[in-house]
Amino acid sequence: MRKTYSDSINLNAYEIRKDFRIFERKIREKPLIYFDNAATTQKPNSVIEAEKRFYEETNANIHRAVHTLSYESTVLYQDAHKKVADFMGAKSWREIIFTRNATESINLVAYGWGLHNLKEGDEVLITIMEHHSDIVPWQMLRNLKGIKLRFLDVDDEGRLKLDELPKLLSERTKLVGIIHASNVLGTVNPLEEIIKEAKKVGALVLVDAAQSVPHFSIDVTQLGCDFLVASGHKMLAPTGTGFLYGRRELLEAMEPFLYGGDMIETVTVEKATWNELPWKYEAGTPNIAGAIGLGAAVDYLNRLGMEKIIAHERELLSYALESLSDFPWIEIYGPKDGEKVGVISFNIKGVHPHDVAGILDEEGIAVRSGHHCTQPLMRRLGIENAVRVSFYLYNTREEIDKLIEVLRETKRLFEI
Ligand code: 7TS
């Protein structure tokens, strides 16, 4: 009988959980409640099986040999690119470069495009809301090339100050780097508007979609961005997977990031020429099994339907926000309204977030506490650390109830 993951409107998280063996796991005799999805998600059996099957039945290097296994590996690896390209609405699978993670994808743009195209006095505009991985590579270019790095600020609630955008942009702005969904606040930034403004001054736009691609449908062609990065491992795929979408003309014109095997067309003792896309940017033996797992993850998400995934998460989000807002001893960061993904950062007043996370862990609840690789944003919000819960398709209201119960106990324990 066909499995029913969803009725006509809603996902059935209880059915979905059966696809994830990790939920059979107990943490100190308690069922695992996994609320650290913004860091990395759990992997369904179909993804693990796809990787396992590859090693058991096909394993061989790609693009290297005429033997059957190598040919099959090559086809599987290319097919994974095609699945991601379709998922993202790219015009061609050659516009999808596989990387280890979102961080490597941004570095690819910084080195492959920035290092060769930016010169002293050029500007890169990013936001104070960026993850460190979309700040530090540009700081590297500031140090190497003398470019200016500008930041779009947020208001006290954590909303981008969009009215300041036009005056930060000029013909000197060569690239705008923008986080699509915040890994701390869960807010979804209005990309269309930002891309439109950036295009007026001829700047390229890089979208950090690490926290949006796993949750709702995005069409890069329709969006009109130049680069977009995401992490495979935050969308059910194995760790060590991520990708870069780049507009074909740009990828054709840019320089490689890593040099060596597989990314060349010809090599003489004097020089080398580059392979066609996407291999030009995938030097050396790639994570073949991981890529095939990423393809399987995309199949899984498509089977469920992105519309239903985001609807489920938003339902959990509003339930959790409603429950948490009852407590004056909890401070929640970021706007409560507007478009969001299932991420909430908060503190129990007077209790260190690591203590809160430790107590939650005692009860089998996995959350992240810390600065979430967004120190400039945290500083802007006047905090150093926060507890963060982040939801995904297998989470339930019942788990949120348990979270609330343990938070109440934590408050009692600290007598606040
Ligand atoms: N961009 C955003 C918006 C992110 O949230 C992250 C990871 C990255 C980039 C980097 O992704 P990676 O695949 O290179 O690691 N964010 C988190 C987080 O919030 N907690 O752990 C990792």
Domains (count)? 2
Structural class: alpha/beta
| Largest sheet descriptor | 7 strands, mixed
Q: Helicity, in percent?
A: 25-40%
Distance between the termini: 53 Å
Radius of gyration: 22 Å
- Determine the strand fraction and express it as a percent band: 15-25%
CATH topology grouping of the largest domain = Aspartate Aminotransferase, domain 2
Bound molecules: ligand 7TS
**Morphology call:** globular
List low-pLDDT spans.
none
Mean pLDDT over the residues: 96
What is the CATH homologous superfamily assignment of the largest domain?
Type I PLP-dependent aspartate aminotransferase-like (Major domain)
How many helices? The count is 14
Determine and state the CATH class of the largest domain.
Answer: Alpha Beta
Work out the number of β strands.
17
Helices, strands, pairings?
Elements: H1 13-17, E1 26-27, E2 30-31, E3 33-34, H2 45-58, H3 68-88, E4 96-99, H4 102-117, E5 123-127, H5 136-145, E6 148-152, H6 165-168, E7 173-179, H7 191-200, E8 204-208, H8 220-223, E9 227-231, E10 242-246, H9 248-253, E11 264-267, E12 272-274, H10 288-304, H11 306-325, E13 330-333, E14 343-348, H12 353-362, E15 365-366, E16 368-370, H13 375-381, E17 386-390, H14 397-414
Parallel strand pairs: 3-15, 5-6, 5-7, 7-8, 8-9
Antiparallel strand pairs: 1-2, 4-10, 9-10, 11-12, 13-14, 14-17, 16-17
The chain binds ligand 7TS.
Ligand 7TS binds at residues 38-39, 101-103, 131, 133, 179, 183, 208, 210-211, 231, 242, 368, 372-373.
